[in-house]
Design brief:
Chain lengths: ~250, ~240
């Protein structure tokens, strides 16, 4: 918990910026809606969409940037001089990231639901929004998706687990380059290559689920991502414990 | 000071290589509890790398390094307080945050002692670490490291960038620690300064251990101070420092 507290402290600044930008976008949206100014309303919607996308993306990425800083600058002494093993250190980083993404996701989802319900009530477009979401999911997956609350929850879980595995594989690539290839010119390139190779393999295996019900399809993907996350978490920790010098 | 052979920190054939550079080269060294060791050698002699391996920050390429017979690990970090020569605090921290951080992670950290040392070093808890001068940063590193009641304390260049008055305060703090059953290892370019409080000296050169000696024994045996011995070892061979 103490490690997590400091990981949260290290990454709070981008989160505050994201919240401020979200607040500005929301105010523009609400003013546009209340005053029936279409231009403002559309600007608000566009800003909210962009801020949501970039905020969630950056919150996820930020923990990797902090990890890179911890491994490659003297600031890392603060972390690695503590009597904590690498499983706790990396675990705290990944957990902090997962919690941040989850809370961020819930926050933006709730905000989107609130704003959509506001507009939908006025314009009576609820069903078309659900249809639109269903169409989008169908275009992204090779199986037929009929949206229900249960399936929606499974899809959210799949997205979260897939993001978690992306972060763990990213962390593994950074740890590998900082551990085994310190001082080599090609270390960063190699770690990027490793990252993409592992990500490709992960996506390939996750897509191997035979056709069937949508919920089983997404659950299978979650399991594959979870297995990759677990394997690469253990690999990263062993590397840190045995070889990492800061 | 104690005189018993109570080996606390030891390395066997310890080697650290960075690509083609050998920073520490097969060093076998035993350090006993209850002594203050001066670790001496010019830049690049391997002092810092050896200390970082003892602190668990750098992993050896080969050989072994142990604390009380236990291989250096996250667990041994509970007993080792290491002060790096480089600043390492998070930029968002105040002096107070630094104390809280140490309190959170080290059971042997005394917040009262930390405050006392801050007073002695003329630092206040409200100061932001990113705004500290080199000298103030050095004082903060000393204060937070010495506020731990660790069994091994390693100070890498603690007197760098510090004025004469603050230096006296640091030496006083070091001597207070020496009263405990602690192993204190101090590296510094200020060899004369070290001679005032250290009782043993470790000489390193090009990553190798050259000599370990008691300072009084050196005087009795060869009639030399550690400054004279330093000049003898490094003076004629192009050591990259004057003393």
């Amino acid at each position: 918990m103490k490690l997590m507290k400091y990981e949260l402290r290290k990454t709070w600044f981008p989160k505050v910026i994201a919240l401020l930008l979200t607040a500005v976008a929301e105010v523009i949206f609400l003013i546009g809606f209340a005053m029936k100014k279409d231009n403002m309303l559309m600007t608000g919607i566009l800003m909210l969409t962009l801020v949501t996308f970039f905020a969630l993306f950056y919150i996820g990425l930020d923990s990797l940037l902090v990890l890179n800083k911890d491994l490659n600058t003297k600031q890392g002494y603060m972390l690695f001089m503590t009597p904590r093993n690498s499983f706790s250190i990396l675990g705290a980083k990944i957990l902090e990231n997962g919690v941040s993404i989850l809370l961020g996701g819930v926050f933006y989802l709730a905000l989107a639901a609130l704003d959509i319900s506001l507009v939908a009530d006025k314009l009576q477009i609820q069903q078309s929004l659900v249809d639109m979401l269903e169409q989008m999911l169908n275009s992204m997956s090779p199986i037929k998706v009929e949206l229900s609350f249960r399936l929606f929850a499974i899809i959210v879980l799949t997205v979260l687990v897939s993001w978690l595995s992306t972060i763990v594989v990213g962390a593994f690539a950074i740890i590998l380059s900082s551990t085994l290839f310190t001082g080599k010119n090609w270390n960063l390139i190699l770690s990027v290559v490793i990252y993409f190779a592992v990500s490709f393999l992960m996506s390939y295996l996750a897509g191997k689920m035979p056709s069937g019900a949508a919920d089983r399809y997404f659950l299978f993907r979650s399991l594959v991502y979870l297995a990759f996350a677990a394997v690469f978490y253990v690999l990263s920790c062993v590397l840190m414990e045995k070889k990492l010098s800061v | 000071m104690r005189s018993g052979k109570d080996i606390m920190l030891s390395s066997r054939d310890l080697t650290k290589k960075y690509a083609s550079v050998t920073a520490v080269d097969h060093v076998t060294l035993d350090l006993e509890a209850g002594h203050i060791y001066a670790m001496l050698g010019p830049n690049g002699s391997g002092k810092t790398t050896w200390m970082k391996m003892a602190a668990g920050l750098v992993k050896p390429t080969s050989g072994a390094i142990e604390l009380d017979g236990r291989t250096i690990s996250p667990d041994t970090k509970r007993d080792v307080a290491y002060m790096s020569t480089e600043p390492y605090f998070y930029s968002w921290m105040t002096v107070k945050n630094v104390g809280k951080y140490y309190k959170d992670f080290f059971d042997d950290f005394s917040i009262e002692k930390y405050r006392h040392l801050l007073d002695r070093m003329e630092l206040t808890e409200a100061m932001k670490t990113k705004n500290l001068s080199t000298g103030m940063m050095a004082k903060l590193k000393i204060a937070v490291t010495m506020a731990r009641n660790a069994r091994v304390i390693m100070l890498d260049e603690p007197l760098n960038g510090i004025d004469l008055i603050a230096r006296d305060a640091i030496v006083k703090s070091i001597l207070e620690v020496a009263e405990r059953d602690t192993l204190l290892l101090v590296s510094s370019h200020m060899v004369e300064e070290l001679e005032t409080f250290a009782d043993r000296a470790v000489f390193m050169k090009h990553g190798k251990l050259i000599l370990t000696t008691g300072i009084r024994e050196l005087s009795d045996r060869e009639g030399k101070t550690i400054v004279e011995k330093y000049r003898e070892i490094y003076g004629h061979t192009g050591g990259d420092e004057s003393k």
